[in-house]
Structures are given as C-alpha cells and as structure tokens.
Amino acid sequence: TWWIENTTPEEFRPIIKAGVEKWNQAFEPLGFKNAVVVKVQPDDADWDAGDVRYNVLRWTASPSPPFSGYGPSFVNPRTGEILGADIMLEYGGMVGRLWRFDVFTEAGMLEAGMDEEDAQLEAELEARPAREVLAEQMNRCHAGAVMGRNSLLAAAAMRSYKFNDEEHAEFVRQTLHRLVLHEVGHTLGMSHNMHASTMLSPEELKDAAKVAEHGMCNSVMEYPAINFARNPEEQTRFYDDSPGPYDKWVIEYGYSVGLEDDVEEDARLSAILSKSTDPLLQFGNDADDMRSTGRGINPDVNIYDLSSDPVAYAAERCELVNDLLPSIVENFAPGVDSHQEVVRAYYALTGEYATQLRVMTRQIGGVRYNRATPAQLDGAAPYTPVSEADQKAAMQALSTYAFAPNAFDAQADVLAYLQAQRRGFGFFGGGEDPKIHARVAGAQRGALAHLVNPKVLMRILDSGLYGNTYDLAEYMDDLTESIFKADLRTSVNTYRQGLQLMYVEALIAALGEKSRLTGVAQSVVLAQLRRIDRQQRDASSPDGLTRAHRAHVRHLIDVALDR
Ligand SMILES: [Zn+2]
Predict the structure, then answer these.
(1) CA of 182 to the centre of ligand 1 (A)
(2) CA of 175 to the centre of ligand 1 (A)
(3) Could you give the ipTM of this predicted complex?
C-alpha cells in the first residue's frame, strides 16, 4: 500500500493514485489482484509521512531541488528484500521550472551537469572503494529533472500550438503517470533501462494504433525525449503512461509465485530468462549509456533520445525548435510584467536543441554489443559497428543543425528580447546582456567534444578491423568539410569563427604530449591541420573580421607545428 501525503494538491491526488496503480497491469497476469493500492493520508492522521512503516508518496516544493522525484528504499541487507520506500515528488517537475543551472550559458542544458557528475564520479572512484561509490550511484535518479526539462520544452510548444485546457490536463496526466510509474518502479527493485526508447521507428511513434500496442518504450525506467510532435496531427502520446513489455517481464521474474521443487523452480525461472533475446525486451542500464562525452559504445543505449532512428528523430526535434523560436516573443511577452518568460522559453528550446545535437553524435564510431550467450547468438558476433550509412546520416544532420553557418539563425529575432529581469542589480560580475556566442559555442562544444574524443577516434580505427567501413581519414575529412567548407569563399560569421577555432584547438590538443591518440590516429589529425592551413591561405576575406579570423587560424597551426 502506498500513501499519498496529505500536503499533495487535491487536483493531483487522483492522477497520482491512478498512475501508481497502473503497476497492477504487471501483477495481474501473475494472479495478483490489487497488488499495488494507493490511499490518501488522512488530514488527521496520527502518523508522520516520514514514518518508515508507511510507504509514502511525499510532496515537496523547494527552490533548488536536486531531483524532482526519487525513491529511496530501505533494504534488508541480508536478503535484498525491499522493506519500505518513500518517493519525493518535486513540484518543479510538474510546472516546468528551470533546474539547477541559472547561468545563461548552461541553463536548460542538463548535460553539462552530467559531464561534471561523470568527472566527479571518476575522481571518487580514485579515492574510495568502487563498490561503495557505485552502490550510491545505483540509487541516483534524474528522472524528475529530465522530465522537468522536457516539460519546459512542452510548455513553450503548447503555448505556440494553443493547447486548450483539456489538452493541458491530458499532458499533466501523462507526465505525472510517467513520473510516478518510474519512481515506484525503482521501489519495486527496477534499475534504469536506457535501451528502452529504441522500440519504435519515428513513423510508428506517429501511429496511435502502434503506440497503443506496447507503448513507445519497452520500459518506464528510461529517460527518453518527450514525444512532442512537430505536426500536431501526428501527436500520439507525450509519455508512456503504463508499464512496458520489459517492465512486465522483470516483474514476472521477481514477483511470480515460485514452485516448491527446486528443480522445477529452476526450470520455471530459466524459461522466463530465456526470453531475454526478444526484441521487445532490450536492456542497457546507466553503466552502459552514452549520456556523457566519450562514455559508452552503443548508441542504442542513451538518454534523451527516442525511436530506432534517433538521428532522424533528433533532426525533427531541431526543426520543431526552429519553428517555435521565432514566435516566443509574441507568445510569452504580452500580458506579463517582464521578458522573463521569453528567456525561460529560449533556454528550454535551445537547451533541447543542444541535447539533440549530442544525441546525433553518438552514432559516430558506435559499436552495438549483444550480451547473449554464444548459444543464443548462434554464431553471430557480439559486437557490430554502426553502419557507414547511419554514421554518414549523423554527420549530415550535424552538419546541418550544429555546424552550418545558418544553423543558429532561427533565434536571430529574439536575441534583443532576452532580458531576464527588470531590476537594476543582481547581475554580479557578468553584466545583464545575453551572452549569445557563449551559449551557441556551448551547444557546439557539446557535440564536437564527442566527435573528437580520443576514445571515439580510437574506436573508429579499432572497429575498422571488424566491420566499420567509415574509416578515420574519410570521417575526419567529412568533419573538417562541414566546419570549414561553406564559407571559404565568403565572410565567416562569428558563430562559425568560434566553431572553427574550437575545432583547430581540439586537433592541436590531439597532437600534444598528453594526447591519448596513437601515432596512427595522430597522422590523420596532422593531415587535417595541414589541409585547413592550405585552405585558409587560399580563402577569400571580404571583411576585417574574416581576415583577422583566418590569420588567427593559421597562426595557431604555425605555432602548433613549430614553423
Ligand atoms: Zn530513475
């Protein structure tokens, strides 16, 4: 039995109750009726919500919440049996407020925090026993924060698409159901499944009948992109609102009634486990996912992505952002006292855009693993590099949305309206003017960091020996071309100047003493620097900024090559 804390707003109580009780869909096939029951803590209850004897869905609202929903559970250390659990539902997750980052360059970009957290984790692993650190990690859940960010995007989109009250209510219902299903899932013993979001193709996600069949993801334990359709006629669900096929399978294994006889019980459990190769039951957890730069190898196991073609899905999401950005001033400024909501919508939209650029990069040098037994694989290899066509499609999308001279043009008309507040103090050292170049550079750096990461470059070389046909020289040629080619005969705008310098500096670092590249990979990097230098020498410079920029690029290369 779960109790909804008596401080929870009335209007959310029935939604939370219905959401949590949907876990019964996983228990009913096992013969349990009403395995999960939700009641409301009476206003005159003589027990406190913190009482360990009660499992409580706590309602919290804090100014800078670390999470927007998480489920600490108390486990019997001898058996692993879960004795009790509380879940914190953070108000911010519902209303779509801005999380944690309030600096202009990083607001709405959760990944910067994730890269930081990853670095912290590495440092902790050096200092403390791995078991201890990883055990703490297992309990960490960002679902609320991730959904909060998604809700910001949705809030901006719903305003533009003029959702009515009924449509808003449906959005809130799906969001809350998904959040409580995920958090209660942890307390039932489930870990994350970051492979879950690849179950359907982009077309299938637009097909209501297909989505109704098994849901959008095979599990509610994933952090997927919100499924907000660019074309309203193609809108199916925003989020899954009931347990998926993978969830039901895990619950069957963990909770179905055992048999007395040990041999028969072993056979029964083996029969359940033998379904692990079913395409509907794909799994990969936090240890495998590619959320941080350079980490993980399998692009199917990632967060913030959706569909079996995450690049196409991400490209459509970038188009949605570009559709919405130009109208945020007319949608968010009238009728309120400041431009603060315009700024918030800008953060939400451009933050999502940056996220999707990172999703695209994970295909490059990607290798899919299969952890089935040799017998289950039946001769197939456990490692399969991502196809050249898929890697090239990712490069094409990155070229268009991250690197092209006009990639960030959709925001041009709103930049002069990005005033966060009307007060004349509280800006500290930074000044109140929007730092546009820094924000765009942040988005580009997020993508580029993975594309030139030594682990990725070395994997391209290694996987070339077992099936990857996109070789390192061809890949680096494509990358250099998408960053330099378009403006060799024209002036170079200042976003592109920043990008080109960032890329050249990354190449130079890859040749440096601390580089983790082998000599073979460094040869390819060196060839790119020489090529860039020749191109810059022969390029046209119609204006002073461009002339200065090209000289700077060549100067960096001269110094690096000690000429
Ligand atoms: Zn979680």
Answers:
(1) 6
(2) 14
(3) 0.99
